[in-house]
Design brief:
Blueprint (H helix, E strand, L loop, with lengths): L3 E4 L5 H18 L12 H12 L3 E8 L2 E11 L10 E9 L8 H15 L4 E4 L6 H9 L14
Length: 157
Amino acid sequence: MKATIKDATIDDLQKVQELNLKLFKKEYEEYDPLLNLNWTFSKEGTQYFKDRILKDDGCVLVAIVEKEIVGYLCGGIKKAESYRNLPIVAELENTLVLEKFRSKGIGKQLFEEFIKWCESKKVGKVRVEASAQNEGAIRFYRANNFKDYTLVLEYDR
């Protein structure tokens, strides 16, 4: 299925936030019960998405099928660690395609458009973080040339 991929505008803000909340709820239920489900529409969450839409170092893309936004991808330029010799780094921060539109190539379209944006910004490294238990997301990213680089381990007390 071919979707139209476009840069999000401020008019798309609420729909992007609604999709992000769906992502958070899914992640909360399946992988990370520490997620703050109130963040997306909080002052901080709203400002995050506004900045990603409006500022030059951010990228928010939406996928449209039959005039409906069915997915989004949000990312941006990150400050690289000063102790490493890294090129410009971008991070794919969050993305979701509505369930009935999954496995139809829309996520890949969003990802490919994000990579084009990264190229336009002279990004040398693209990062993504996924819950270790989210095998589908990890499979998708590996299939799109992401390689395991760091592993974050946590200890609960």
